[in-house]
Structures are given as structure tokens and as C-alpha cells.
Specification:
By secondary structure, this protein is of the alpha+beta class. It has helices at residues 16-29, 41-53, 101-115, 131-139, and strands at residues 7-10, 58-63, 66-75, 85-92, 120-126, 143-154, 157-167. The protein has a single domain (7-167), classed as Aminopeptidase, CATH 3.40.630. Strands 1-2-3-4-5-7-6 form a seven-stranded mixed beta sheet, with helices on both faces.
Length: 179
């Protein structure tokens, strides 16, 4: 029996080859990532391990045994005052676009980060014309807080960076709990 119901779960090492294929597509063909060369499996595993070591969520959505997309939260900046703020990343396989998987992943990521007691989530979106990502984040409660013009040069063009932000839990209405 084929299960076409999306299932969100934590990513495991065995998912990295499919994650690498998805990410490589965006690195090579789009402006969402400012990387120019797709990272190999070893590099993706190192990145995944850092996220896991920091007790942050790294999720995949699986449909009939295939990874339809992934999302993770990473430290926004390394200085201690940023410890309650994370940056999100969401990528959906080109084979599964338009099926709501990005919304499922980002919603699950927001819930997981809120459960961890984090207070702010930042989206750093490559390309001010990336309407799919901007609309996804807007639907999930983010507001645009800035545009940094021409911060990247990729595919023979200057590319803007859009910053969006959303509070998690109490946001900035109360002090964070000491960790």
C-alpha cells in the first residue's frame, strides 16, 4: 500500500543523500541560497551534526519513503545575547512543489523551536523576488523587517537579501528563562 500522507520527522544521517540532491538543485539553479557550489554529503553531515549538537530541530517531510523537503533551525549569530534567536531554512524538493510541504515543515519547525523556549525566528531569504519563500513566511506569521540590496552576486546578477522575523512563544514580552 502506498502512503502519500506527508510525515514529518527528525532527519537522520540516511536522509542526507536526498537532502543533498534537493539542496544542490537550489544552489545550482536558484537564488535562494548564496552558495555557488553544492556541498557534498560529508559537509552536509557536519552541518547536520552541529545543529543536532546545539539541540536544534532538523526535520524532513517524508512521502511514500521519499524525502519531499527539509527544514532546520540554526543559531542566528554566535554571540550569547543571540542565544534565544534562531534562523530557519526550508527547502522543498522540486518534485513536490505546490503541495503545501513548505508550510508543513515551517509550522513544525516553529512549534519545535517554541517548545525549546526560543523567542525569535529569523528568515534570511535570498532574492527579493523569491515570492514563494516570502509568502510562505508571511503565512507562518513572519513580518518583513528589512531588505539588504545587492548583498550577493550569483548567476550573473546582484541579489538582494530579505530579512523576516517572527516571535516564538512569549517573544520579547518577558525575559527568557535562564539556560
Amino acid at each position: 500500500m502506498v502512503n502519500l500522507t506527508p510525515h514529518i520527522r527528525p532527519a537522520v544521517v540516511a536522509d542526507l543523500p536526498e537532502i543533498q540532491i534537493i539542496y544542490a538543485h537550489y544552489v545550482l539553479n536558484g537564488l535562494a541560497s548564496f552558495e555557488l557550489t553544492p556541498p557534498d554529503i560529508t559537509e552536509l553531515e557536519n552541518r547536520w551534526q552541529v545543529i543536532c549538537h546545539n539541540n536544534l530541530p532538523y526535520l524532513v517531510v517524508e512521502i511514500d519513503g521519499q524525502i519531499g523537503g527539509y527544514a532546520y533551525a540554526s543559531s542566528f549569530r554566535p554571540r550569547p545575547a543571540y542565544n534565544n534567536t534562531v534562523e530557519d531554512s526550508v527547502y522543498v524538493s522540486p518534485d513536490f512543489l505546490g503541495q503545501g510541504l513548505g508550510h508543513l515543515l515551517l509550522t513544525a519547525l516553529i512549534e519545535a523551536c517554541t517548545a525549546l523556549g526560543l523567542r525569535q525566528m529569523i528568515a534570511v531569504i535570498g532574492d527579493s523576488q523569491n515570492h514563494a519563500s516570502i509568502n510562505l513566511h508571511t503565512k507562518c506569521g513572519f513580518t518583513q523587517v528589512g531588505v539588504m540590496p545587492s548583498t550577493g552576486y550569483k548567476l550573473d546578477q546582484w541579489v538582494d537579501t530579505v530579512l523576516m522575523q517572527r516571535p516564538l512563544g512569549d517573544g520579547d514580552t518577558t525575559p527568557p528563562k535562564e539556560k
